């Protein structure tokens, strides 16, 4: 993670209170993560870090555009995101006493900075939809028209056309409930 050093925040010198940080997330950021769902994008991260006596509260606001591969035509299309997440980082004197959880990151007295790159990466990847399709499937400038036409040819028509044209279904139509 040496190459993601610009996402490290030295918190030992910060005064108590709220501190604002801004980061740019580009293709270079995503290339540092080998198995990233997102390979390309341009996002802005606004981070409000509230330092308290025993913990820090990190509020992330991520917005921008990332390129996703369409599950239908396989072409890349832009996907807009607006993400708001919150993370708590707790200060502790002994690392053996506590471990990180999903909600809380434990920072020992030996640590002096927190790298937020893994958190940003996680939040962005969690915003990726389970099924990737553009808003107007087949009708946008990003759609691969050649692939969509090939899919239409291979689909063989609608379900009604297939059922009415297949004589094997005729015997089943005579069965009563």
Short description:
This protein has 177 residues and is of the alpha+beta class. It has helices spanning 27-31, 117-126, 145-155, 159-165, 170-173, and strands at residues 8-10, 17-25, 40-51, 55-69, 76-91, 104-107, 113-115.
Structural description of this entry:
- With 177 residues, this protein is an alpha+beta fold.
- It has helices at 27-31, 117-126, 145-155, 159-165, 170-173, and strands at 8-10, 17-25, 40-51, 55-69, 76-91, 104-107, 113-115.
- It has a five-stranded mixed sheet. Strands 1-7 form a two-stranded antiparallel ribbon.
- The N and C termini lie far apart (65 Å).
The span between the termini is 65 Å
Oligomer: single chain
The average pLDDT is 84
Q: Assign a percent range to the helix content.
A: 10-25%
Biggest sheet layout? 5 strands, mixed
Strand order of the largest sheet: 2-3-4-5-6
Low-confidence stretches: none
What's the total number of strands? 7
What structural class do the secondary elements suggest?
A: alpha+beta
Secondary-structure element sequence?
EEHEEEEEHHHH
Question: Approximately what portion of the residues adopt beta-strand conformation?
Answer: 35-45%
Shape: elongated
Rg (C-alpha, Å): 25 Å
Total helices: the number is 5
Q: What topology does this entry show?
A:
Elements: E1 8-10, E2 17-25, H1 27-31, E3 40-51, E4 55-69, E5 76-91, E6 104-107, E7 113-115, H2 117-126, H3 145-155, H4 159-165, H5 170-173
Parallel strand pairs: 5-6
Antiparallel strand pairs: 1-7, 2-3, 3-4, 4-5
């Amino acid at each position: 993670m040496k190459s993601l050093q610009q996402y490290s925040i030295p918190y030992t010198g910060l005064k108590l209170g709220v501190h604002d940080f801004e980061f740019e997330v580009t293709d270079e950021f995503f290339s540092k993560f080998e198995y990233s769902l997102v390979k390309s994008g341009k996002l802005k991260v606004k981070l409000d870090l509230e330092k308290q006596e025993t913990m820090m509260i990190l509020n992330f606001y991520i917005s921008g555009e990332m390129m996703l591969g369409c599950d239908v035509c396989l072409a890349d299309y832009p996907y807009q995101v607006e993400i708001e997440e919150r993370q708590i980082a707790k200060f502790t004197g002994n690392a053996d006493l506590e471990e990180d959880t999903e909600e809380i990151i434990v920072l020992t007295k030996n640590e002096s900075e927190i790298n937020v790159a893994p958190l940003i990466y996680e939040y962005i990847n969690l915003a990726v939809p389970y099924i990737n399709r553009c808003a107007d499937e087949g009708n946008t400038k990003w759609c691969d028209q050649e692939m969509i036409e090939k899919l239409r040819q291979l689909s063989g028509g609608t379900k009604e056309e297939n059922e009415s044209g297949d004589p094997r279904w005729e015997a089943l139509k005579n069965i009563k409930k």
